[in-house]
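ok trying again, last paste got cut off:
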Amino acid sequence: MTYQTHIAQLTSLIADQNGTWDAISPESVARMRLQNRFATGLDIARYTAAIMRKDMAGYDADPANYTQSLGCWHGFIAQQKMISIKKHFGTTDRRYLYLSGWMVAAMRSEFGPLPDQSMHEKTSVPALIEELYTFLRQADARELGMMFREVDAARAAGNAIEEQRLLNAIENHQTHVVPIIADIDAGFGNAEATYLLARKMIEAGACALQIENQVSDEKQCGHQDGKVTVPHEDFLAKVRACRYAFLELGVEDGIIVTRTDSLGAGLTKQIAVSKEPGDLGDQYNSYLDCEEIDPTTARNGDVILNRDGKLLRPKRLPSNLFQFRAGTGEDRCVMDCIASLQNGADLLWIETEKPHIEQIAGMVDRIREVVPNAKLVYNNSPSFNWTLNFRQQVFDAWSAEGKDVSTYDRARLMSVDYDGTTLADEADERIRTFQADSAKRAGIFHHLITLPTYHTAALSTDNLAKEYFGDAGMLGYVKGVQRKEIREGIACVKHQNMSGSDLGDDHKEYFAGEAALKAGGAHNTMNQFAA
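nice, full thing came through this time. structure:
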């Protein structure tokens, strides 16, 4: 419904109440409706799922249409990110949010900071999704509220042209609510546990769930050692559990992102069930590190595989885990991805140990031989040393081309001594174009940084603490924070407005008319920022 349609419908409704609702302003109610267009998290999930599906089709048509997100650990961070995007680019198109399980564990657990091992409360994940969308909806209410005030000012001034311009802008207002790709880790238990958590996450507003193929109770961060994968049938049961949750809740366009950690995972907790040669279980088991044995040499408690008439004993560690053969990670990643796409996944996530386009593309090329429209979500991780990695990539490329690299020490390329060199400049340019280049070459539909706002919060706090508690004193805050907020038009410089004070005043006026006691009078110190 348009603004004017809401007003007309409400005018008729109020008129039918025999004068008892005459103190209710139809336009005020219409404004409140527009400021809160999403009644439930499911409304958000359905709306944002459609956006992602549209963007996926746009990427298939042209890989220049890749999408991006930043991980956010608090609703305020997500809100300020989207306000900033609208300010700088005029649209939120193809910009999402990412909810990182790592940041939930490290920053949102009642246990305190935890490693990324699925030890945090599973309910903290849907709670953060709900919080993120609460803050994004408040950003809508705030922005529209300021536009409504401008409409009133134009009317009071008799400026009909400006009033109409503002009304057109209201009708075409773009919400701050965007898709969230939400990390469900390894499902926090069996398939039933995965389903129950998926339901909560979708009800909170998540349109895209990212699930990984690690053992739930042995889960590790994708950039740490000790990862243990599960057989495909176990993982696919959880993928189906997520799909059931989407379908049950009426989010038929819901997106499932399946992450494989096989590139860095050399262990499995289980030997897969195989019913016939060449099935998924047999393929999974084919990568196990085995030794051929004679039946007479079998030991007590041995697990024995029969393959092509040979008896094989998988290597079993004291931890009771089984080991894969070294060098099989890429093959297992490709198999994982194809199996996921053939069993209901929409997007893939391959966790790599470095940001190398050709490494990623090599696997995607193989996947696309079977599933031509395969697409990736890729973690532009802060766990990578981007500067060192790309300087070494340039060094290696130059060496292969026969260029003189004798003035560079490959092991020391992170050193500040190389800043500003030709090699460093070329590396920075490769970093700058990494997302566009890999979207085109390696099938990456969505680029995200998992933990950026964790690092920015630490960096900005360090800078402020150094100045404020040092010789700069109060100037450390004024020059390093407030003056920059004013100069750069940061919305929260007017922190009372950002927290909803003006919205509250509007509501007080709706409810009490001229008797309203409002906070935004002449003595409000926020008026110092009017200029």
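cool. The mean pLDDT is 94. The longest helix spans residues 124-156.
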